[in-house]
Amino acid sequence: NPFARAQYLLAAHNHRQLPPDGGFEVAFAGRSNAGKSSALNALCQQNALARVSKTPGRTQQLVFFGLPPHENKYLVDLPGYGYAKVPQDLQAHWQAFLEGYFGSRDALRGLVVVMDVRHPLKEYDRQMLGYAMRRGLPAHVILTKADKLGRGAAGNTLQAVRMELARSFADSVSVQLFSGESKQGVDELRAVVAGWLAI
Ligand code: GDP
To answer: Residue limits of the EngB-type G domain (predicted)?
Structure first.
C-alpha cells in the first residue's frame, strides 16, 4: 500500500502557506459528515490520519499529507462544507482560495469527491466537480457508507449517479461504491489515486 506511510505535513489557510507547486497531488472534497476523513484513513490504513470528528470552523484549511518516500507527492484534504455556522465572509474567503487553488495549482492531478451514498450530488459536490472540469482535471466520486444500503439499493444509486455524471460532465468523472466501515471499494480508490500520483 503506497499510502501506508502517509503523514501530516501542513495546513494552509491561504495561498502563501501552500507547499511549493512542483509535485503531484490529489485533492479530496466532500460535504461535512460525508465520510471523507474515514475514507482517507481507510485509504492509508491509519486510524487517525484525518481526524474523524472535527470542530466546525477548524476545518477551514487545506491539509497536506506527505507520502514518503516520495517527495512532493501529497494527498490534500479540502475543507468540508455544509455547516450553517460558517460566517458569510469566511465562506467568500474559502470560495476564492479554493477557486484559486483549482485554477492555478500545477501539481493538482485529480479530485476525489466523497458523497454519502444516501445523499449524492448536492450543490457543493457539483461545484467541486465543476472546478475540476474547468481545469480539465479528472475526478472520481466515491459513494460512501455503502454498508448502510442493501446491495440492490446501492447498485441502483451507483447506476443513477453514473448516468447523471455522464450527462453533466461527459466521461471525465468516474464513480464507485465505498465504505470506510466494511472497506468495500478501498482497493479501487487506491488504484485511481495511485495512478494519478504515478506511484
Ligand atoms: P467527514 O466529515 O466527511 O470527514 O466524515 P467522517 O469521516 O468524520 O464521518 C462522519 C460520520 O460518518 C462518522 O460518524 C463516521 O463514523 C461515519 N462514517 C463514515 N464513513 C462511514 C461508512 O463507510 N459507513 C458507515 N456506516 N459510517 C461511516
So the answer is: 22-199
- Ligand 1 centre to CA of 33 (Å) is 6
What's the CATH code of the domain at 159?
A: 3.40.50.300
Determine the structural domain holding residue 121 and report its residue range.
Answer: 7-197
Helix segments in 8-122, DSSP class H? 36-44, 88-104
Q: Is residue 1 part of a domain?
A: no
| Entry pTM | 0.95
Measured CA to CA, the distance from residue 153 to residue 54 in angstroms comes to 30
ipTM (interface pTM): 0.99
Query: Is residue 2 situated within a structural domain?
Result: no
- Residue pLDDT, tens place only, 81-118: 665 566 777 778 888 999 999 999 999 999 999 999 99
- Take atom 25 of ligand 1 and give the residue whose Cα is closest: 145
How far apart are alpha carbons 144 and 8 in whole angstroms?
23
Ligand 1 pocket check: which of 52, 54, 58 to mutate, most ligand atoms within 8 Å of Cβ? 52
Task: Give the number of domains in the chain.
Answer: 1
The three cell numbers of residue 7 are 503523514
